[in-house]
């Protein structure tokens, strides 16, 4: 969403100085709708672990708020390289199915909070729902793939809340943004994105529970490789 929004905002000369922040904020706000709808469908299939979601939520909210504060100032080159490297490793591990330990369990409350802070901060800086990071994290700790995907949808909601609040508040402090904006959220684009996501999110969520597990795992791993490559390509 972010590259497409950035292209459209640049083409319309919406606000050249803050078009990237507007794209990030609008994309983050759109995740509110897709995450909520996706969570409802995954929950209907019994694939949402609310214990994990509730344990990680405080860290996710804190991390996203921190991430949005630095989104317009901090150099992201090192974060992008780290993030892409992590995603490559997670994708290759999923494709080759190595380093699997049946006794590996999720960390305690402190570890889950710290993981939430890291996931939330990175997610808000690049405006993603967090599934790119949270799904490999849960798979690493032996959570079944469909449950990891369903739970990551639930984790996307607090990420979107914290990120949206952060982008709105930092944008409102400027006072120089175009009409039809709420902070760094461009409302007309948000309305169209929300409508589109409400139409297509059920298709993806239901496919998660109908596709063969091996095909689903390979498809998700290939998606991770594409996303990481795209990030590095944009950086270079």
Which properties best describe this structure?
mainly alpha, two-stranded antiparallel sheet, single chain, 236 residues, 75% helix
Explain this structure.
The structure is a single chain. With 236 residues, the protein is mainly alpha-helical. The protein has one domain. It contains 9 helices and 2 strands. It has a two-stranded antiparallel ribbon with strand order 1-2. Strand 1 (181-182) and strand 2 (185-186) form a beta hairpin. Helix 3 (50-70) packs across helix 5 (109-126). The chain starts with a helix and ends with a helix. 44% of the residues are buried. The model has no long low-confidence stretch (mean pLDDT 84).
Structural class: mainly alpha
Strand order, largest beta sheet: 1-2
Order of SSEs: HHHHHHHEEHH
Sheet having the most strands: 2 strands, antiparallel
Strand content: under 5%
Low-pLDDT segments, ≥5 res? none
Distance between the termini: 20 Å
The total count of strands amounts to 2
Percent of residues in helical segments? over 70%
Number of helices: 9
Morphology call = globular
How many structural domains in the coordinates?
A: 1
For the residues shown, what is the average pLDDT? Answer: 84
User: Radius of gyration over alpha carbons?
Assistant: 17 Å
């Amino acid at each position: 969403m972010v590259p497409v929004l950035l292209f459209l905002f640049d083409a319309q000369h919406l606000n050249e100085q803050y078009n990237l922040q507007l794209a990030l904020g609008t994309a983050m706000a759109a995740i509110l709708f897709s995450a909520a709808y996706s969570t409802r469908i995954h929950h209907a299939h019994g694939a949402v672990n609310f214990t994990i979601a509730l344990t990680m939520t405080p860290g996710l909210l804190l991390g996203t708020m921190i991430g949005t504060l630095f989104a317009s100032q901090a150099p992201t080159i090192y974060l992008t390289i780290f993030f892409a490297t992590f995603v490559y490793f997670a994708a290759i591990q999923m494709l080759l199915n190595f380093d699997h330990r049946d006794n590996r369990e999720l960390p305690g409350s402190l570890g889950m909070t710290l993981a939430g802070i890291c996931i939330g901060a990175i997610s808000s800086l690049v405006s993603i729902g967090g599934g790119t990071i949270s799904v490999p994290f849960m798979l690493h700790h032996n959570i079944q793939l469909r449950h990891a995907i369903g739970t990551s949808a639930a984790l996307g909601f607090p990420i979107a809340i914290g990120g949206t609040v952060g982008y709105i508040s930092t944008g409102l402090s400027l006072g120089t943004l175009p009409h039809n904006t709420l902070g760094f959220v461009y409302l007309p684009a948000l309305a169209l994105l929300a409508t589109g996501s409400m139409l297509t999110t059920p298709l993806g969520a239901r496919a998660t529970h109908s596709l063969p597990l091996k095909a689903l795992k390979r498809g998700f791993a290939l998606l991770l490789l594409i996303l990481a490559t795209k990030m590095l390509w944009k950086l270079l």
